[in-house]
Design brief:
Layout: H1 11-20, H2 31-44, E1 47-48, H3 50-54, H4 65-70, H5 77-90, E2 94-104, E3 107-108, E4 114-120, E5 128-130, E6 142-143, E7 150-152, E8 155-161, E9 167-171, E10 174-179, H6 190-198, H7 203-206, E11 209-214, E12 217-222, E13 225-230, E14 233-238, H8 242-253
Antiparallel strand pairs: 1-11, 2-3, 2-4, 2-10, 4-5, 5-6, 7-8, 8-9, 9-10, 11-12, 12-13, 13-14
Length: about 260
């Protein structure tokens, strides 16, 4: 069965998206091109849930592109991976949307609680796990092969067989999430997207964060606590001044906010 997705992005949007992540349009949908796009996306677009706390309207898939590209914001997995999926489609990649369950302390979260992508390129015998929307994810795509540790600047990752044909992702031996093996439509995530925005049990409403990796570590703003990890060292600062907090969002993450979230 062939899944039917919406219309492809127009060329102006594609060009703007590529500028947003500092990439050139690849001449062909190769594994090297995918690696370059993925790495630039991860290092440029923050993983953040600020709009959940501002109670701003949000969309997923193609509907998230205006936020990410025009307003130069970040987002969560449905937004970032959903938007990246639309970009990859236009660039000629064979991409699929996958549903997953995030593992927290060894306990799997809700079904369809995470979105990732599986991408095939003509010059690679294996598909690739693509995920630009996970705060502790890999910088580069991971080969869709199980039982083989894969080194990445963000850790050592491994795909492992899971019950019922699913696939687990481990980072440095710790369970990150479990993915279904069958493709989904972006629309399949809409009900869970509503739950994330409105349920008192939603992790996006319980915790406010904005995070992005750097060449030497990671910068994370959790509420008003700024944590900077660089070359093995960690510096933590509590920001109490609103102007300083707004400047931190701008300088550290490239996020311009008219109103500050409370969380």
């Amino acid at each position: 069965m062939t899944l039917t997705h919406g219309p492809l992005l127009d060329e102006r949007t594609v060009a703007a998206y590529l500028r947003r992540i500092g990439a050139h349009r690849p001449p062909a949908p190769t594994a090297a091109a995918l690696r370059d796009l993925h790495g630039r996306h991860v290092m440029t677009v923050p993983f953040e849930n600020v709009d959940f706390h501002l109670r701003e309207p949000m969309g997923i898939g193609a509907a998230a592109i205006e936020k990410i590209v025009t307003r130069r914001r970040g987002g969560t997995c449905y937004e970032l991976n959903g938007a990246f999926f639309e970009l990859l489609r236009v660039l000629g990649f064979d991409a699929e949307v996958l549903a997953g369950r995030v593992a927290d302390g060894g306990v799997l979260g809700p079904i369809i609680g995470h979105m990732a992508l599986r991408v095939r390129t003509a010059d690679s015998p294996d598909p690739w796990l693509v995920d630009v929307g996970y705060g502790r994810g890999a910088r580069h795509p991971l080969r869709w092969v199980t039982g083989q540790p894969q080194r990445d600047p963000h850790g050592t990752f491994e795909l492992a067989p899971a019950p019922l044909g699913d696939v687990d992702l481990l980072r440095d031996g710790l369970h990150q999430y479990r993915l279904e093996d069958r493709p989904r439509l972006v629309d399949d995530f809409e009900a869970m997207w509503w739950w994330y925005q409105h349920s008192p049990e939603s992790p996006h409403l319980k915790h406010l964060y904005c995070t992005i990796p750097t060449d030497g570590g990671r910068v994370t703003l959790s509420g008003t606590t700024l944590s900077v990890r660089e070359n093995g060292a960690k510096l933590t600062t509590v920001i109490e001044d609103e102007d300083e907090l707004r400047e931190t969002y701008r300088a550290r993450f490239g996020v311009e906010l008219a109103a500050l979230p409370r969380g």
